[in-house]
Amino acid sequence: MTKTSATTQTPVASAPKRSLTPRRRAREYALQGVYQSLVMRRAGSLPNAAAIAKQLAEDPGFRRCQLELFQGIFTGVLEHTDELEGLITPALDRPINELSPVEHAALLIGTYELAIDLAVPYKVAINEAVELAKTFGGTDGHKYVNGVLDLLAQQLRSTEIQAG
């Protein structure tokens, strides 16, 4: 079950039943930061990446995340949001602003890893984004994220997919 913190509008996962790897934890914090940025943008505010990152770093669990991965994903998504949304939009069945902020953030992270961070295998990029949507999103949001990212992977990583 997920809930939203009333003061920060950042999704907060309920106590996980499994141990998170530092890489998974980094992606979860990146999702929370991207989510907060999206919510601020939708409200007409300019997101402050440094302030968001500082707030996330104050969480006790943050020290157990892989910091370099968090920074790379979080800053990379924020720096390339327009480009990433340009890739995502044609694969959607609705306007991008109608996505839930969690699905939107998971799609941005997955697309960032598919299009820009080519060191991440396409299957890992898709799986990690789907897991983020499962953890923080609505009931079937992960299925939508999976479908969109699968389509994007076919376009962006066709050589890798064909190689098997």
How would you describe this protein?
The protein is mostly helical. The chain has one domain (20-157): NusB-like (N-utilizing Substance Protein B Homolog, Chain A, Orthogonal Bundle), CATH 1.10.940. 63% of the residues lie in helices and 4% in strands. It contains eight helices and two strands, in the order ββαααααααα. The protein has helices spanning 22-42, 49-57, 67-79, 81-88, 101-115, 122-136, 141-156, 158-163, and strands at 2-4, 11-13. The chain has a two-stranded antiparallel ribbon with strand order 1-2. β1 and β2 (11-13) form a beta hairpin. α5 (101-115) runs antiparallel to α6 and α6 (122-136) runs antiparallel to α7. The longest helix has 21 residues, at 22-42. The protein is globular and about 45 Å long. The termini are far apart. The relative contact order is 0.13. Mean pLDDT is 91; it is low at 1-8 and 12-17.
Topology:
Blueprint: E1 2-4, E2 11-13, H1 22-42, H2 49-57, H3 67-79, H4 81-88, H5 101-115, H6 122-136, H7 141-156, H8 158-163
Antiparallel strand pairs: 1-2
**Structural class designation:** mainly alpha
Can you name the CATH architecture?
Orthogonal Bundle
CATH topology (fold) name: N-utilizing Substance Protein B Homolog, Chain A
The major pleated sheet works out as: 2 strands, antiparallel
Number of strands: 2
Alpha-carbon distance between the two ends? 35 Å
Shape, principal axes of CA atoms: globular
- At the first level of CATH, the class is Mainly Alpha
Instruction: Tell me the count of domains.
Output: 1
Strand content: under 5%
Element string (H = helix, E = strand): EEHHHHHHHH
